[in-house]
Amino acid sequence: MAEDEQTKQAKTLKQRVWEIIFEAETPAGKLFDIVLLCFIGMSVLAVMLETVAEFKDKYSSELLFVEWFFTIMFSAEYLLRLWCSRKPLRYATSFFGVVDLLSCLPTYITLFLAGTSGFAVVRVLRLLRMFRVLKMAHHVRGAHVIMQGLVRSRAKITVFFFAILMFAVIAGTVMYYIEGNVEGTSFTSIPMSIYYAIVSITTVGYGDVVVQTNLGIFVTTIMILTGYAVIAVPTGIVTTELMRGKDNESDHTTDACPSCGAHGHLADAVYCRRCGDRLDHD
Amino acid sequence: MAEDEQTKQAKTLKQRVWEIIFEAETPAGKLFDIVLLCFIGMSVLAVMLETVAEFKDKYSSELLFVEWFFTIMFSAEYLLRLWCSRKPLRYATSFFGVVDLLSCLPTYITLFLAGTSGFAVVRVLRLLRMFRVLKMAHHVRGAHVIMQGLVRSRAKITVFFFAILMFAVIAGTVMYYIEGNVEGTSFTSIPMSIYYAIVSITTVGYGDVVVQTNLGIFVTTIMILTGYAVIAVPTGIVTTELMRGKDNESDHTTDACPSCGAHGHLADAVYCRRCGDRLDHD
Amino acid sequence: MAEDEQTKQAKTLKQRVWEIIFEAETPAGKLFDIVLLCFIGMSVLAVMLETVAEFKDKYSSELLFVEWFFTIMFSAEYLLRLWCSRKPLRYATSFFGVVDLLSCLPTYITLFLAGTSGFAVVRVLRLLRMFRVLKMAHHVRGAHVIMQGLVRSRAKITVFFFAILMFAVIAGTVMYYIEGNVEGTSFTSIPMSIYYAIVSITTVGYGDVVVQTNLGIFVTTIMILTGYAVIAVPTGIVTTELMRGKDNESDHTTDACPSCGAHGHLADAVYCRRCGDRLDHD
Amino acid sequence: MAEDEQTKQAKTLKQRVWEIIFEAETPAGKLFDIVLLCFIGMSVLAVMLETVAEFKDKYSSELLFVEWFFTIMFSAEYLLRLWCSRKPLRYATSFFGVVDLLSCLPTYITLFLAGTSGFAVVRVLRLLRMFRVLKMAHHVRGAHVIMQGLVRSRAKITVFFFAILMFAVIAGTVMYYIEGNVEGTSFTSIPMSIYYAIVSITTVGYGDVVVQTNLGIFVTTIMILTGYAVIAVPTGIVTTELMRGKDNESDHTTDACPSCGAHGHLADAVYCRRCGDRLDHD
Which parts of the sequence belong to the Ion transport domain (chains A, B, C, D) (predicted)? Predict the structure, then answer.
């Protein structure tokens, strides 16, 4: 009986922690979100500055301290999330579960590898910490609207992606035929020419590869104009797609699934659309 | 009695000045707007030309005269605006009140600092005068339609902004890993690589940082194509947002609030939506 | 009586010529349009090739012949248009009347100036012939849909234009402050910095002016991302504008006004919307 | 009687092969599609890598083997398509029939030409194999939605294309007049200046041609801003076009016409809209 009481109380504690770290409706939950966002931002900034030679030389001990501070914070957050999930394994194997783990793991591994292992592995691990930025998506509200827009237009965006690629392959081959034999050309191979075509069609235009012949200028001009006229089509398709879905954008709750932590459920949802568990805490 | 008469007349003068400098419905008000716009344009042009070495050497005395002419004009305008506002403090602390003050203040301060102070301060003050261009927003009709469009899509634009940033951080890190160790690379640090990623995704493409390895070319190509496909989504979201709000765009008056000078009130508005004061002159 | 007959016949001839050169509904009118479009294209191409040194040296006599052939053709066309217009002066002073005149005049003037006049005047006259390309707008069907779209969104495009300009002026000034004192900088003056800001915000990105300092990179990144997010707004505004006007796009006739030659009249129009004359031949 | 039976069985075999290689509704048909897409991708990749000098030197024998493997595969596919079409000639003369033939023919021709013919012909034939990528359009579902969007907006896109071209011709001529006489200019001829104008207006901005004079910078700035404001119009037009057609996008079947192999028929179509033959297998 007493044990049952304790279990109940523990559950309430679990539930309270859950509300703070997974949801954002209570003041504590909002504060947690904001603090975490700042921590993510600062920790990513620290990893970035580590690669700037002059900064690293000057503040190397401060960077080390900051690194361990954030690693311990993110480890604590990860363990808390594991503990208060009803199905920890499901959270651990979800996208954000993996991201949360990757946010703290690399620092520990580099500790064990220090000195013994090669430079390449350490370098990957160091850079992996940059992926902490993905934790942000967890906490930025409305991100799922963008995601839904992209997912809904997925099929058409894919087709468009391939259409551009096919166009670029053909245009690149033609450019390679025209410019490939000119002395001092930058069109040294078809992949290079396709790179040029894509950089041109998408209006990026670095200018590291440029045409030299008159025919090349003419073909480039036609290619750019065609790409420019074509850009309107995918934009229009996505707008149409988004407009059609406008009415379907019902109210989403900020509640997360207690089992796997998935966000973006509809207000009237009873079961998680990702793992099928009940959304309410019993 | 006589004093009361005088007060009334003064009030009518105040009101008439108000109508001329804050509103644009009377012929005098329209003329004032046009003249002021020309003055702003010419004064900004003068500050710009001051920084062109060859021009400054040739016309330094003319530029000095022009500078003082516009400073006195803008000072007079600022004092008039203060005088005819019903709540001068509110105008003075509003966005345009500060901009109007900043339009004339720097010239006076440089006068007192001449010779005594360092170059850096004078330089900031000189350049601050460029912000006069913001006075224009005051007088360009329809600017609030763009502003409303932006404000209404604020949340989604912010999410999009962060989504691009996150994408650029990840892509930049990957590019740094690929290109960072190549000899003579421009990818000297992660911030530099993120700069490259943003310049590429947004299709700016300066070409000051370019890839050298084959893998780098491949990843850049994928990155650009993804960015290109993604550009359609925010465009579509804003269009949807604007279309939804189409019916709400009721008629706006060109009248300004007599207390704080805020523009863009609805035709049937009785109270200012910024400071809550009555909009009519009693 | 006989004279009256003759006048009537002349009028019918005039009308028939009118139908051929101003309208495009008869087979002869369509043929005339196509031939003229080819002539314009070829004549513009000839002027273009004249500026290519290697081509000019090789084919200078051929280019001279081609030039005179097209000049005489366009002169004949201009005279015919003048002759068959009911109010020749109105046609002559209309936009396309001036363009048509400018298409043949420069060649005659260079003939008289040959040898006597300076190089600069001849050069302007030579290049003026490139404006023949504007004659095309006369004959490209559907051009008025684009024009109407632009005209209808005129006010909002203007505001957007100024908003971008104001943003660029502020951003350029800030960049000048950051980069202006660095050695070997390209930010030599504020106009140069504003050029950089506009080239960046509009995603053109030539790369002739690039930042050197870390702070400059950071500010540029923010500036580009803001510009990129903002691009969606004018696009959305124009789409909304075009959609609203969709129903109003009634059928336009291909008939031109017999007095001034204006195109794009509605099917039920009785009077020219430009000059107010009756549209039918009496 | 037995022969009739055999014919019937043969027909069923033909029909079964047809279902596999032309349609994608049966599991076998889907598998065939996926395998073919992989083969196309790999074969195009092989041709691309052949032009990379270091790769070609290392793996020249492997590339030769791969080339013949894919050529034989595509030949078999082409012959099967010919065999199971009810009207082989119609398939052979259709767009995809020609593409399918071009996918295998060049390899055979180079075999016969080896040693005897000049380099130029062999080079064209080698590069022609890149057009295999067009076979992909055959198999990418939804490609016809993009195509229909483009076709439906065809007239307006053409007008827009010409409008941009006319604008670029005028702007390029003006730039040539301004920059053409400066020493060390890149604006060596009008075609070069038009290339600059198009690269600028479409926001590509390679940076290989850049202005040197102050006036040139000013005109470029105006040109870019105008182009930037104008981009919204075609986008809006296409969106409007696509939205109008939204309701017409009825369900399309994945069935292909048994005579000519055309795709994208409506669910209730009885006759092919391309060749007029019945769509069902009798």
Answer: 30-245
pTM for the predicted model, two decimal places: 0.82
Tens digits of residue pLDDT in B232-274: 666 666 667 666 654 444 444 556 666 666 655 555 556 665 5
Q: How far is A258 from chain B (nearest CA, A)?
A: 25
Residues of B in contact with D239 (CB under 8 A): 239
Residue C271 DSSP symbol: B
Give the per-residue pLDDT at C215. 92
DSSP letters for B202-254: TT---SSS---SHHHHHHHHHHHHHHHHHTHHHHHHHHHHHHHTGGG--PBPS
Q: Let me know if B24 is exposed, middle or buried by CB neighbors in 10 A (0-12, 13-18, 19+).
A: buried
DSSP H stretches of helix in chain C: 2-22, 27-50, 53-84, 88-93, 95-102, 105-113, 119-128, 135-139, 143-152, 154-179, 190-201, 214-230, 232-244
Cβ contact (<8 Å) for D150 and A207? Answer: no
Greatest Cα pair distance in chain C: 90
Q: Which of C44, C143, C206 sits opposite D159 (nearest CB)?
A: C143
> What pLDDT is recorded for position A251?
43
The contacts of residue D64 (CB under 8 Å, 6+ apart) are: none
| CB nearest to D233's CB, from C143, C204, C238 | C238
* Phi-psi region at C260: left, alpha or beta (left = phi > 0; alpha = psi -120 to 50): alpha
Averaged pLDDT for residues D220-231: 82
Nearest of A156, C48, D115, A44 to residue B165 by alpha carbon: A44
Which of D275, D240, D243, D236 is CA-nearest to residue D259? D275
Return d(Cα D142, Cα D264) in angstroms, integer.
Answer: 9
Domain map (residue ranges) of chain B: 13-140, 146-250
* Cross-chain residue pair B143–C156, CB shorter than 8 Å: no
User: Which helix (H) or strand (E) covers residue B56, if one does?
Assistant: helix B53-84
Among all residues of chain A, which has the CA nearest to that of C203?
A: A204
Of B33 and B178, the structure prediction assigns the larger pLDDT to: B178
CA separation for the pair C232, C235 (Å, rounded): 5
Give me B133's structure tokens: 């261009």
CA distance A3 to chain B (A): 47
Mean predicted lDDT score pLDDT of chain C: 79
B-chain CB neighbours of A130 within 8 Å are: 169-170, 173, 190
pLDDT tens for residues D74-132? 999 999 989 888 888 888 888 888 888 888 888 888 887 766 555 667 777 778 888 88
Q: Does D13-140 match D146-250 in CATH topology?
A: no
State yes or no: pLDDT of D37 exceeds 80: yes
Neighbours of B83 (CB within 10 A): 12
- The reported pLDDT for the residue numbered D196 is 95
Q: Buried b vs exposed e over A190-216: b needs ≥16 C-beta within 10 Å?
A: bbbbbbbbbbbbbbbbbbbbbbeebeb
Nearest to D205 among B205, B214, B235 (CB): B205
Quickly name the fold that domain C13-140 has: Four Helix Bundle (Hemerythrin (Met), subunit A) (1.20.120)
Strand ranges, E, within chain A: none
Rounded to whole angstroms, how far apart are CA atoms C221 and D198? 25
Distance from CA of A203 to the nearest CA of C (A): 8
Q: Please tell me the CATH code under which domain D146-250 is placed.
A: 1.10.287.70
Q: What average pLDDT score do residues D23-38 get?
A: 84
Per-position DSSP letters for C225-241, written without gaps between them: HHHHHHTHHHHHHHHHH
- Residues of chain C with C-beta less than 8 angstroms from the C-beta of D219: none
Would you call A207 and C203 a contact, using CB atoms and an 8 Å cutoff? no
Residue B231 C-alpha, separation from nearest chain C C-alpha, in angstroms: 9
* pLDDT value for B262: 62
